[in-house]
Amino acid sequence: MEKDHCVLCGVETIYDKLTHIDMRIGYIEGAGQLCPKCFDAGTNRNSFLVPEWLVENYPNNQELGSKVRELYWENKK
Predict the structure, then answer these.
(1) What are the tens digits of pLDDT across the range 42-61?
(2) In the chain, helix, strand, coil percent, each to 5?
(3) At a CB cut-off of 8 Å and minimum separation 6, what does 63 contact?
């Protein structure tokens, strides 16, 4: 069975992809599975997720960079 990976650091977790989210520790709805290290770090993170649609809809690197920076500051509020 294929294992799920941490959405922040990419490490393989102990959970199978088909394990229901109610039976997991560290699953964040809307984001995905976290490994124990990332889950334990709480909200003290120096990274954030960029939605795929943003990358797909802004193929120009300068525009994409501008949108990522905008997303960064929106999440800092």
Answers:
(1) 756 567 778 889 989 998 99
(2) 40, 15, 45
(3) none
